[in-house]
From TrEMBL:
PROSITE patterns associated with the record: TAT (PS51318)
Signal sequence segment: 1-26
InterPro entries found in the cross-reference section: Carbonic_anhydrase, Carbonic_anhydrase_sf, TAT_signal
Keywords: Metal-binding, Signal, Zinc
Name under which the protein is recorded: Carbonic anhydrase
MF (Gene Ontology): carbonate dehydratase activity; zinc ion binding
Pfam family, one: Pro_CA
Cofactor note text: Binds 1 zinc ion per subunit.
């Protein structure tokens, strides 16, 4: 069968399970992202791809893509449709929880999914120069970096990293002595941290211009390490 592009693949998505045998469906869904398909994709379509990927992950039905074929297909160029800013937490690898493969997404990972100048520069490359249509900031439950920030943990260079999360705690309406033993507080700070990162990215000049042109969207999401489910923040 002919190789389908991303748009055709998306069009097939809803009916594919009925219309195509499993192997053919997997082949279509595993078609690599190209400059043409990336350019034709809207930010909302990119978001839908990530949502569908997490649905497959949740259902225990990830795509079984031929990764070596994808390596060959991306050897000359890459055109990922999205970028993800995630934590280094071993339970939240973006490619797995979004069921994405070679050449699909840029992934910037740093403890507590914070945004500093280097992460921002990476995202400017991913979007303005490499064409990604969506930036997803992906926080998660039970985040050790968030807990450390709440408790004021200090260790080498980690101290400075956690200081980037502290303002998210201070912006919350919270009375009392903050403690990482307060599970509800940990979750609230983690969500606030994601929302603050999204706002920070939306203010950045290079990204702002792409957003204003309708070329880019920045969204926040929270991953639940107990279930694998990703909830998108409104
Ligand atoms: Zn974390």
């Amino acid at each position: 069968m002919p190789v389908l592009n991303r748009r055709q693949t998306l069009g097939l998505a809803s009916a594919a399970c009925l219309a195509l045998p499993g192997a053919a469906w997997a082949q279509a869904a595993c078609a690599i992202s190209t400059a043409a398909t990336q350019g034709a994709m809207t930010p909302d379509a990119a978001l839908k791809r990530l949502q569908e990927g997490n649905a497959r992950f949740m259902a225990g039905a990830p795509l079984n893509c031929d990764l070596r074929q994808q390596v060959r297909g991306t050897a000359q160029a890459q055109a990922p449709f999205a970028a993800v800013v995630g934590c280094i937490d071993s339970r939240v690898p973006p490619e797995l929880v979004f069921d994405q493969h070679i050449g699909d997404i840029f992934a910037a990972r740093v403890a507590g999914n914070i945004v500093n100048d280097d992460i921002l520069g990476s995202l400017e490359f991913a979007t303005r120069l490499a064409g990604a249509r969506l930036i997803a900031v992906l926080g998660h439950s039970e985040c050790g970096a968030v807990k450390g920030a709440i408790d004021g943990a200090q260790l080498g260079h980690l101290t400075g990293l956690l200081a980037r999360i502290r303002p998210s705690l201070q912006r919350l309406d919270y009375s009392g002595v903050p403690s990482s033993k307060d599970a509800a507080l940990v979750q609230r700070v983690a969500e606030r941290n994601v929302r603050d990162a999204v706002a920070q990215l939306e203010r950045a000049e290079v990204l702002r211009a792409l957003i204003d042109q309708g070329q880019l969207k920045v969204v926040g999401a929270m991953h639940d390490v107990a279930t694998g489910r990703i909830v998108w923040l409104a």
